């Protein structure tokens, strides 16, 4: 029943001032924007993977030019895979040349080197250069974007989808602060030999000097990269890598109202959470392997995201190695990764020497080959999985770099065996199929 004032009888008994206050609160709540905080952000201890801070870290956001972090990841992977060199020319199509600023302004039909593209992406965040290299590596920018998204999935970036290589506005191009932190850590761990590009303060192309948009370089102790970004829909974004006093973090801020306020927020996060980071490294956070054009084949339990994160095909120098007397590697039919392998002779070197593994799960591994090249190691793994998939269905294939006196070898291994018995049983079953192998504890 309603009273003459239009309120239900039950509400008419409530003191008026309480009712007014309650209605005001309801009205206020109904006007709160969907994004409850100004920033989406996260701080990850790059030594342990522990999340030190998170605010809307898994909320969907537009990456803007943070997208170019993945473009650079793909460039670095192509460099290490031998698909391109730093002096390879990158042609600019009419599509690439027409991208809106910021850009380096190369005319359609002209070209620059891959290294120039790298510098222009890191400093000026050039949209035309991003599109041009995307077309070089992916055939079309749309095709390259699909490759970028596939790579994101392999890295554990479950909530990221790329539609272009630059970060120019697209309603379907989404990411999260957590995913960008994963990418930042992957860039540091997988490509330390290329990572110095991110600390470039400026680069001169012809007579044009391109300054780095990352204003924290040289201003905040320990900051060594990585990337800024802005479109109207996203606000001002920044991923920062910080290393100092034995501590290391990767921090992300997405959604600043201005570049200055974004930088202020990032500086605040660094100052507050860097002292809380560990001084002891637990090893690589991203510790699985990829085989055959980026298909994920291994997982590692880490504390960063609750998903599997594979490494790139190439593992940089600096991996722990041990004394090695290689056995001769012989393959009846060998091919590069991705090509069909008919047979692999049992004479492929097995190299039964224990080393530190890149797989951080511990336990036992089964090694099936030790070859002179990564391509051969990948090919052996593909062939072994094809011939003995039922035996290795729960195993984790990966390759491992091994070096002695300047000579590099690549081990083909299967990890994930929790007991000695499981590893020895698997190896015995492989031998019955004429596949040479060796079981060893991590």
TrEMBL record:
GO terms for biological process: cell wall organization; peptidoglycan biosynthetic process; proteolysis; regulation of cell shape. It comes from the Bacteria. Keywords: Carboxypeptidase, Cell shape, Cell wall biogenesis/degradation, Hydrolase, Peptidoglycan synthesis, Protease, Signal. Transmembrane segments: none annotated. Signal peptide: none annotated. The active site is at residues 65, 68, 125. InterPro entries: Beta-lactam/transpept-like, Peptidase_S11, Peptidase_S11_N, SPOR-like_dom, SPOR-like_sf. It holds the Pfam family Peptidase_S11. Substrate binds at residue 227. Residues 358-442 form the SPOR domain. GO terms for molecular function: peptidoglycan binding; serine-type D-Ala-D-Ala carboxypeptidase activity. Belongs to the peptidase S11 family. PANTHER family: D-ALANYL-D-ALANINE CARBOXYPEPTIDASE, TRAFFICKING PROTEIN PARTICLE COMPLEX SUBUNIT 12. This is D-alanyl-D-alanine carboxypeptidase. It comes from Aquibium carbonis.
